[in-house]
């Protein structure tokens, strides 16, 4: 775990993609501390909670047929058999196969917050955090989003774009881009942050959520 406390600065861009200097990131969130075990726990739980848990195989009591003994117990020279639905027969039941179950893992809220904060610090340490002014797309337009990301110099990277609240047009403009994910700042999880190569954050989102841990 990296425990060195430090401050970070991030480049600031306009909504048109023009750089306008740098800005210090809020120390309440970006303090430089990265807790790897906590991040691992949060990501593992996130992936587990996405599992449907619907895989199912039939046991010998659920497959069709097998009511009659294949051959008599003695006198045939063959091994005794009681049912053609036994696991050793073709078409028989499965032993210890998967059954529907829940893979849910509960992670305490404070642990989730610490993991998320650590992930943001990890990206800040890599100088992979970019601030932008408020993004206003009058209509969904993938081309406009592509040009905007190119102006930031991140067109060839996996980008997590965190908006100040829900912005449907921004989301729809990036929906067809496989390497871009748009989420409200408050909804981003540890998994989403670590998935990305670069985190692009609307400046207002940091102000709105400055008290968030």
- Derived from helix and strand composition plus strand pairing, the structural class reads alpha/beta
Shape estimate: elongated
Mean pLDDT: 92
Give the helices and strands as they follow along the chain. Answer: EEHHEHEHEHEH
Which runs of at least 5 residues are low in confidence (pLDDT < 50)? Answer: none
CA radius of gyration? 27 Å
Q: What order do the strands of the largest sheet run in, or round the barrel if closed?
A: 2-1-3-6-4-5
* Main sheet properties: 6 strands, mixed
Task: Provide the helix percentage.
Answer: 25-40%
Cα distance, first to last residue? 18 Å
Number of contiguous helices? 6
Number of strands: 6
Oligomer: single chain
How much strand?
A: 5-15%
Summarize the topology:
Blueprint: E1 9-13, E2 19-24, H1 36-49, H2 109-125, E3 129-132, H3 142-152, E4 159-163, H4 168-174, E5 180-184, H5 190-195, E6 198-202, H6 203-208
Parallel strand pairs: 1-3, 3-6, 4-5, 4-6
Antiparallel strand pairs: 1-2
Question: Can you give keywords for this protein?
Answer:
single chain, 213 residues, alpha/beta, six-stranded mixed sheet, 6 helices
């Amino acid at each position: 775990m990296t425990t060195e406390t430090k401050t970070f600065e991030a480049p600031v861009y306009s909504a048109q993609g023009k750089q306008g200097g740098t800005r210090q990131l809020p120390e309440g969130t970006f303090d430089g501390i990265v807790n790897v075990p906590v991040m691992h726990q949060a990501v593992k739980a996130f992936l587990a909670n996405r599992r449907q848990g619907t895989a199912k195989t039939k046991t010998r009591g659920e497959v069709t047929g097998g009511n009659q003994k294949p051959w008599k117990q003695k006198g045939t020279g063959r091994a005794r058999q009681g049912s053609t639905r036994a696991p050793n027969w073709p078409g028989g039941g499965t032993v210890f196969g998967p059954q529907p179950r829940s893979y849910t893992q509960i992670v305490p809220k404070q642990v989730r917050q610490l993991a998320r904060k650590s992930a943001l610090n990890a990206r800040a340490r890599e100088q992979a955090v970019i601030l932008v002014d408020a993004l206003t797309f009058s209509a969904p337009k993938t081309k406009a989003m592509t040009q905007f990301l190119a102006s930031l110099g991140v067109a060839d990277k996996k980008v997590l774009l965190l908006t100040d609240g829900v912005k449907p047009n921004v989301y729809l403009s990036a929906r067809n881009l496989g390497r871009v994910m748009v989420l409200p700042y408050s909804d981003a999880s540890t998994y989403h942050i670590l998935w990305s190569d670069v985190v692009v954050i609307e400046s207002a989102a940091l102000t709105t959520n400055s008290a968030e841990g």
